[in-house]
Amino acid sequence: MIKFRVAAVLASVFIILGATISGAGTTHTLEVLGDVNAIAGSFTVSLAAALTVFALIKRGLPVSVSQAIVGSIIGWNLFTASPTDFASLTSIVISWIVNPVLACVFSFLIYNILKKVVSKMKLHILELDLYTRIALILVTIFGSYALGANNIAKVVGVFITTSPFRDINITSNFTFTSVQQLFLVGSLSMAVGVMTYSQKTISTIGSQIFKLTPISAFSSVFSASLVLFFFSSQSLERLLNSLGLPSFPLVPVSITQSMVGAVMGIGFAKGGRYINYKIIGKIAIGWLATPVCAGIICLISLFIVQNVFQQIVVNPSSYEVTIPVLTELEKTGISTATLSKYENRIFTSQSEFRQHLKSIDINKEEELYKIFQVAKIENYHFDSNYVNQKLSPEIFSPQQIEALKKLHNESFKHQWQIMDKLKLISDTWREAPDVKENEVYNKELRREYQIIFSTFKVVDK
Questions:
Q1: What is the extent of the structural domain holding 394?
Q2: How does pLDDT run across 353-395, given as a tens digit for each residue?
Q3: Same domain (yes/no): 38, 80
Q4: Alpha carbons 230 and 250: distance in angstroms, whole number
Q5: How far apart are CA 252 and CA 261, in angstroms?
Q6: In the chain, is it the N or the C terminus that has fewer CB atoms within a 10 Å radius of its CB?
Q7: Which 3 state secondary structure label does DSSP give 175?
Q8: Beta strands in 93-161 (DSSP E)
Q9: Do 452 and 370 belong together in one domain?
Q10: What are phi and psi of 251, to 5 degrees?
Q11: How many angstroms separate the CA atoms of 342 and 299, rounded?
Q12: Residues 223 and 299 in one domain
């Protein structure tokens, strides 16, 4: 119905637009999962994921980039002795299961509805052909934009902290930020991938799992795109929560998994007799192998890059155990009885800190993650001029802006110290009670804090 070249060009253009305009929404999940803080480390993590994906795509398997980059980040965490945020990891893994199942259900329903509508409309075959081509073009545009917006986090998310770009002030009212530049480069590389290496994977999904007709192709692509939208849309999250319904976690999900699930939905809608379960089995094995392979490749690659090429793959972080740190940990529910033996000690690397925590029987990854977050020493300095220049009034309320200005010329070592001070100055920086109705508000507030931390962090040159 659409030539490969036309579909590839459309996909490439709207992937670039989606990534550059709306790509920032899902990057925070990967940042929390692993704080890759050195450019050589970011490169190696990305390379390990890319090699894994490249090897499996060359075999025609629809591979999840999400699984590859997550596996690679966990490999970096293991290599650097950094704890993994299990809450974020759990949300991502659940999305890997929900994603194809949801796409399968949507595709099954949409195909059956469309089939009934088309049969009742009694269209001439040429009219049906025209409408189907237009529908396929529109759904390609929608799906590609959603793909760029959701998946750019996987492509360049590990470079957010170490981005080599600097903001470009184009006009007094418009700045092409370093993150947008990073997203543009990443989306251009995605477009090159579409043009060069996607055709074999397209063949696997479009014909080898189950032979697709034009209408079933529309149903499957539309269903997969909807799932991608559900895992990306803050507006939908707000609406569902306002109605008292469960919402979708805002995490990067795999369009490949969605498409495979959607194509299976079409197969089930047609009785399920002609689904190629052998291909499905190969794809499932690929999905299971992807994060494991990416993690192993990342570990080996980090060792080589650090010891053979003499590159810094991790910038050591410092941690302190002081009375204020112990008090803050008590607030999070962590017992500090054994940890207090290190009072007034400073640890100069992740591995040193983890080793000492292990020696006092603190081994649970969830506890380690909280302790690392609270004890980490980072330098923040506030300047009221930056408040006006860098912070958008579309994101922050006037009361929040004024509260930030009152921190002028103050310095902090920990993120929680900034949060405590802002809460004292203005209630607009306080989280609402932890109930379902306030879930979206609290998530938005946490995202605002992340913007503050990245804006006022003092970066050593």
A1: 380-456
A2: 999 999 999 999 999 999 999 999 999 999 998 888 778 888 8
A3: yes
A4: 8
A5: 17
A6: C
A7: strand
A8: none
A9: no
A10: -130, 155
A11: 31
A12: yes
Over residues 260-289, the pLDDT tens digits come to 899 999 999 988 877 888 888 888 888 888
Cβ-Cβ contacts under 8 Å for 152 (sequence gap 6 or more)? 18, 19, 23, 27, 183, 186, 187, 190
The answer on 345 and 250 residing in a single domain is no
> How far is 394 from 104, CA to CA, in rounded Å?
38
Whole-model pTM?
0.84
Tell me the per-residue pLDDT of 96-132, one tens digit each, with 9 for 90 and over.
889 999 999 999 999 999 999 998 988 888 999 999 9
CA distance 2 to 262: 19
Q: Which of 207, 200, 203 is nearest to 266 (CA)?
A: 207
How many structural domains comprise the chain? 3
At 193, is the secondary structure helix, strand, or coil?
helix
pLDDT of residue 461: 46
Please give the structure tokens belonging to residue 122: 């009694």
What is the C-alpha to C-alpha distance for residues 122 and 419, in angstroms, rounded to an integer? 63
Do residues 385 and 406 both lie within one domain? yes
Residue ending a domain, choose from 257, 273, 307: 307
Strands (E) located in 258-329: 318-321
276 and 303 within one domain: yes
What distance in Å separates the CA atoms of residue 165 and residue 179, rounded to the nearest whole number? 8
Examine residue 313 and state whether it is found in any structural domain, yes or no.
Answer: no
Cβ atoms of residues 172 and 253 within 8 Å: no
pLDDT of residue 252: 76
Q: Where are the alpha helices (DSSP H) in 161-276?
A: 178-197, 199-203, 214-230, 234-242, 255-269
Instruction: Kindly state whether residues 227 and 370 are assigned to the same domain.
Output: no
Instruction: Write down which residue in 362, 377, 392 finishes a domain.
Output: 377
Model pLDDT for residues 302-354, shown as the tens digit of each residue? 999 999 999 999 999 999 999 999 999 999 999 999 999 999 999 999 999 99
User: Helix 255-269 to helix 86-121 angle, to the nearest 10 degrees?
Assistant: 40
Q: Give the length of the chain.
A: 461
Place of tokens 């993994």: 84
Residues 387 and 404 occupy one common structural domain: yes
Evaluate whether residue 312 is within a structural domain.
no
pLDDT for position 354: 96
353 CB burial (10 A radius; 0-12, 13-18, 19+): buried
